[in-house]
Amino acid sequence: MSDRMNMTGRRAFLRLLLCFALLFLTLTSGSAFSQSGGELRFCLRSEPKTFDPLLVDDDSSLSIRYLTGGVLVRVNRHTQELEPELAESWKVSNDGKQITFKLRRGITFSDGSPFSSEDVAFTMQRLMDPALHSSTGDAFRSGSGAVTTKIIAPDQISITFPAPIAGLDRLFDQVAIMSAHSPNPKKEAAVLGPFMVAEYKAGSSVLLRRNPNYWKKDSQGRRLPYLDSIRLDVQSNRDVEMLRFKRGELDLINVIDSDYFDRLAASSPQLAHDAGASLDSDFMWFNQVPSAPIPEYKRAWFRSTSFRRAISQAINRDDLSRVVFNGHAQPAVGPVSPANKFWFNNKLKAEPYRPNAALQRLQADGFHLQNGTLFDKAGNAVEFSIVTNAGSKPRERMAVMVQEDLGKLGIKVNVVTLDFPSLIERISQKFNYEAAMLGFRNVDLDPNGQMNIWLSSAENHAWNPQQKSPETAWEAEIDRLMRAQASTADPKKRKESFDRVQEIVADQAPFIYLVNQNALSAVSSAVEGANPGILSPQTFWNAERMTLNASTRASR
Amino acid sequence: MNAARKLACVVVLALCAASLAANWLAPAGYARQFREAPSAPPSRQHLLGTDEVGRDRFARVLYGTRISLLLAPAAALLSTVLAALVGGLAGYLGGIWLRLARGFTDLFLSLPWLFLLIAVRALLPLNVSPLVSVLITFLILGLLGWAASARVLSTSADALRNSDFLLQARASGLHGTRLFLVHVLPNLKPVLYAQFWISIPVFILAEANLGILGLGVAEPLPSWGSLLRELEGLISFREEPWRLVPLLLLIVVMTSFQLLLSNEEVTV
Question: pTM for this one?
Fold first, then answer.
């Protein structure tokens, strides 16, 4: 009897042990996935200039802010839609001056302190402090007067601006919320993002570790991020970066040139990712500044719409895309890339290559071709220089191809490459140039980010900046339309205004848009969950859901 | 003349001849863009393939060699003449003139002259033809590259100043310009030759450095500097070995000049 009881007891004990073992295995297997995603490694192209999320102004610091900062709303880099993050919901007032956020409850910073509307108020007050000189804050400066915050409840806050701000909610994608208890932000500051800075070796690397208090979970309830850490090596040499990637020392290259891309695609096609046309554009323009030290007859050419349109028609953009970028670029249409799904004006098409039409247009304007050289009405041979920055091989190649294309019309083009500071001095201070070729690295989908280019009074109105009043009727019309789109919160009205701006730019060609480069990146096969896109940061925008495969985790 | 020097001489002469016959050897020209065949490998039509915008690399190498091999000696001649005037005269005059000249050359040598070249290049007028731009580039090199030679020449002239034969010439009533031209300058000739030959590879490399920075000879004119830029991004030598030809050519020419310089007649 006692033996039977002993046997039953042993069986019960064994069953209990088995249950505990199973439970232990289940728990550990779940956490094994979520808690040991491995260490992702990639390069920053330069030293991060700051760890203060509100002072970020360079690519490296932007990358760190993206990975460590918690934001109220986030633009989904894949769908380009705005999604809730720390804010459950939000509402913009009809006049576009006020936004009210309803915050998630139960969220804590990486140091364990609770997150509340007090932190949002602190962040906004610091962001809008004129003494801080925050470029992120500049986007919120809509008019004279103070920005006020009103804490309605610990999970509700409203922020009021002195004047309407178009696309107000999307601007909060760039505002990493800071802890009101960390008034002096350093690299060790408490954060709300998926990672936090664990170690910084100046000139060498930045190590980010998983934020143990990160609020987000995946669809199966597992806490994000999967990765244990991210190591960011400071490496400006792209050859070295590519070699290290090929050796397996790096897992990602966020942006790569078309030359490197093709070589990688030839050897390992599964690692090379072409996400299609990016928001970036390359373009050229003519100097139309009245006080510029250039001959009067040349200024007359450059201020002629016919001349600019003819030059635009004489450039073979398909060849530029195919030859310079090995097909990894698209002929540009205008100031907005077709990749910008909402703001691109679908009615517009890239200027086709029509050298005969270009010549006819010039002849109608009084130019004539004689012994292979184009002359204007007064008998001046058409010759001008294009300045561009030395060191940018794609741009130098484009300039050489434009030189040949325009040579077919009898126009002599001199290509001049200058070091960047000299170039900027010429085009923005001395205006001592004839034509320039540069690129625009666009990170903002909203046209408000281009106000400093299109307003005739703006400093970056490259062809004729800082005008006291618009010198042409079409510039006055662009001014009016840009201000109109900025003063309403109605997306439809804004789109109508900005569509018209794009049409005027296509008609007048103050900028001759050349190509939109494709977003090219490289992702190692060791990385799982990567989905490279066109918006910055192209490869690691979903880093919280990325992980490394088991063999790579084991080998590191 | 030993065998190595003879070979070096033949190589330099052959390259000069080939570059002068570029129009005949490479009728495609250096500027024409074969856009249907960018970055093409060597073929019967393009012996060294094409560059990134489809230009015939063989033609560009020949024309680039012509520019570098003709203009580098011209720049070397200019800098040697300047060095002779500054260094030779200061050494001959001695005293405060020598100290002033040495101070000035030391100051000139202490300047970071690659940055100085970049700064001077940026100040030049923009609307100049590629041919004028290449002349300007080598003119700048010649005008800025005299200081090292001037220092050597001033030391040599200083040594000559107190020599017995000059003392005798002075005692015979010779002085001033005639003494300098008849007695000093002929005795500085070996040093001048050496400085001239040394300067040529230095200027070729300086132009190549500017070209690598994208600040050398203007497009579409080729030079060794712009041709060497093609090596940027070349990860493996086996990948496209024909792209290494400009580099090999530069090495061959530099080595040839070094072998020619070993001539005892021009070595002091």
Answer: 0.81
